[in-house]
Write a structure and sequence with these properties.
The protein has 411 residues and is of the alpha/beta class. Helix content is 28%, strand content 29%.
Length: 411
């Protein structure tokens, strides 16, 4: 990121979580040309005179923000945003969630994540406060949220699971009595999570869909039906157009699977690498998300996987997400990722990598096959290989599983 952006200054905290961030920063800066000035920031740093700040910007369409995204790929890409694109994302989120001044929110992700300005601008529009945590430790978070009256919490699918785990320690009594909903995005949401949260916590999960390049695409809302909340990522937010496109470039009808493409005021201004920008937009200016999905007749979007997350086994496309949703509901499975690895006979072999649920016996291969067969899965889609791991590799922002690392490990 430093090499690509060539910043004049590199701001870091002082000692944090026993890590000497300034020392790390100086080591990195020393190897760069030009070398940025490292500025350690701590609670005792002198405060500058606001009168010395530069003038406020006047061009809302100027690129002033670069967010780096790696997601499930290994090489970070610099995504260019303007004040207007970021504010449009926050406006879409605020409208979809219908937040009110008496709400108390929480920000579970790093503020420098693309969801930071989304959430912050939503707070400004709706006029509600949010609880900030130094680190997300489930038991501490639940205690703080209960004490301060949080009405909305969440972050990602991993956070939903953590709240459920805390609730299961005290069944029958809500761990955060003031909580009205969980909301978030950043990773696929198995329908089972929605049903578990509703049954055990008594509140809905309002899951959304966005990406660094387009902070808000769709969002579940408090007025959606249980079916819409469980099985979709919500409907397109204000400020975005969405369509799905087949492999031959034709636009899909309602209910047909295709690549999700978006355009509108929330979409970024491309990447810092012009070649990546040229490849990311089609001839009509639609951004190609790389996600597969359907737009249902009710207008809600259901994601079915990613173009590169489709496993091609003996010439047949297999959706990793379909298998993940089924396996996630197995009582022995805490979390799961399904990947394809090279195979001379099949082209790709289907591999399920699972974490074992707390207190459960590890899933065995015969048990997995019987379970999937019993749920009516086509035999040719059942994974040929099962790997049980202590922990799936994840990024630090939203606990998203890094499938490229799994492919490296198991190929």
């Amino acid at each position: 990121m430093l090499r690509a952006s060539k910043p004049a200054f590199f701001l870091v905290p002082e000692i944090w979580k026993d890590e000497d961030r300034p020392a790390m920063a100086r080591t990195l800066a020393a190897g760069l040309t030009p070398s940025p000035t490292v500025l350690p920031i701590d609670a005792n740093a002198p405060q500058g005179d606001p009168a010395n700040l530069p003038p406020a910007p006047t061009d809302g369409d100027a690129v002033r923000w670069v967010y780096y995204t790696s997601g499930t790929t290994s090489d970070p890409k610099g995504v260019q945003h303007t004040d207007n694109t970021l504010m449009a994302g926050g406006r879409g989120l605020a409208t979809a969630l219908d937040m009110q001044p008496d709400d108390v929110g929480s920000i579970a992700f790093p503020f420098a994540h693309i969801a930071g300005p989304d959430y912050f601008f939503m707070m400004l529009l709706a006029g509600f406060p949010a609880i900030l945590l130094e680190s997300f430790i489930p038991a501490d978070a639940v205690e703080s949220f209960a004490k301060l009256g949080a009405t909305m919490a969440g972050g990602s699918t991993a956070h939903y699971s953590m709240f459920l785990a805390e609730q299961r320690k005290s069944p029958g009594a809500p761990v955060v009595p003031s909580l009205r909903k969980l909301a978030g995005g950043g990773a696929p949401k198995p329908p089972e999570i929605y049903h578990q949260v509703l049954a055990e916590m008594g509140i809905p999960v309002l899951h959304g869909y966005g990406m660094t390049e387009c902070p808000m695409i769709a969002q579940g809302g408090p007025h959606d039906t249980p079916d819409q909340l469980a099985h979709t990522e919500g409907k397109p937010v204000v400020g975005i157009e969405v369509r799905t496109v087949k492999a031959d470039g034709t636009v899909c009808a309602a209910g047909e699977e295709g690549e999700v493409r978006v355009r509108g005021s929330i979409v970024c201004k491309g990447y810092t690498d012009p070649a990546l920008t040229a490849a990311a937009f089609d001839d009509e200016g639609w951004f190609k998300t790389g996600d597969l999905g359907v737009i249902r007749p009710d207008g809600h979007i259901s994601l079915t996987g990613r173009l590169k997350d489709v496993i091609i086994r003996k010439g047949e496309n297999i959706s990793a997400k379909e298998l993940e949703d089924l396996l996630f509901a197995h009582p022995s499975v805490k979390d799961v990722a399904v990947i394809g690895v090279p195979d001379a006979e099949r082209g790709e072999m289907v591999v399920a990598v699972v974490e074992t649920a707390d207190g459960a016996e590890p899933l065995t291969f015969p048990a997995m096959v019987d379970y999937l067969d019993g749920h009516g899965l086509m035999r040719q889609k059942i994974p040929e290989r099962l790997e049980v791991t202590a922990a799936l590799p994840r990024n630090e922002t939203l606990n998203k599983v890094l499938k490229y690392k799994l492919r490296e490990q198991y190929s």
